Amino acid sequence: MREIVLDTETTGFDPDGGDRIVEIGCLELYNHMPTGKTFHQYINPERDMPDEAFGVHGIGPDLLLSPRAAQAGEVTLKDKPVFKLVGQAFLDFIGDARLVIHNASFDMKFLNAELKWMGLPLIPWEQATDTLAIARKKFPGAPASLDALCRRFGIDNSSRTLHGALLDSEILAEVYLELIGGRQPDLVLAPDQGAASEAGGNGAWRPTQRPTPLPSRVSKEEAAAHDAFIEKLGDGAVWKTYR
């Protein structure tokens, strides 16, 4: 099963009001395990950066202030591609994989607005899994922000002084695995179709008898010693029922 953990950074809250995406970060999971494949892109929003948005992610109109960007030698948004130059590459990366997003409605409305403006296919809403909704259902009444969930699960987010799309995707991947049952959820083996049908169609797996019993690993000497020990226990010994 292929999943893409995804986050965006924007100039604000409303694409219909002129706000745009300035960063996309994606991380690939396969069977709930990171593969190391990522998609990360800064985007020229072709507009100014409001102070409120700058305070959240530190991406200014001219300078990219996040430590990751500085280490990568990134300097300005003005020399980054506009969305229409990277939209198809983004769609090619995510494919038909399930998208894991915290507060999915926010990112989905921005992504689909950008895709619509450039005439590309929209992403179906049902393709997204909202970890915010999962957290609220699992822990009703408790804080469900990404930082709060990191504290709950003991996930180190000390490098998250500012929001960053790829960094947040990396953190969200860890949170997501905890929300669905631990860092290796597939160790709880899912039944295949044959096992489900044998269990009466309810999906509850039941073991079946081996077609050929395993050979005994007890030697003749060990078996004789065991029989001699049982004889000493008397006629009521429970072990005699297993002969």
Concise structural overview:
The chain has 243 residues and is of the alpha/beta class.
SSE inventory with pairings:
Blueprint: E1 2-10, E2 21-30, E3 33-42, H1 51-57, H2 67-71, H3 83-94, E4 98-101, H4 104-117, E5 128-130, H5 131-138, H6 146-153, H7 165-179, H8 193-198, H9 220-231
Parallel strand pairs: 1-4, 4-5
Antiparallel strand pairs: 1-2, 2-3
Helix pairs in contact: 5-7, 6-7
What share of the residues does DSSP label as strand, in percent? 5-15%
Main sheet, how many strands, which sense, barrel? 5 strands, mixed
Q: How many helices does DSSP assign?
A: 9
How helical, in percent, are the residues? 25-40%
Written account of the structure:
This protein is of the alpha/beta class and 243 residues long. The chain is 36% helix and 15% strand. It is built from 9 helices and 5 strands, in the order E-E-E-H-H-H-E-H-E-H-H-H-H-H. It has helices spanning 51-57, 67-71, 83-94, 104-117, 131-138, 146-153, 165-179, 193-198, 220-231; strands spanning 2-10, 21-30, 33-42, 98-101, 128-130. It has a 5-stranded mixed β-sheet. Strand 2 and strand 3 form a beta hairpin. Helix 5 (131-138) runs parallel beside helix 7 and helix 6 packs across helix 7 (165-179). The longest helix is centred in the C-terminal third of the chain and has 15 residues, at 165-179. It is elongated, with a radius of gyration of 27 Å. Mean pLDDT is 79; it is low at 63-67 and 185-204.
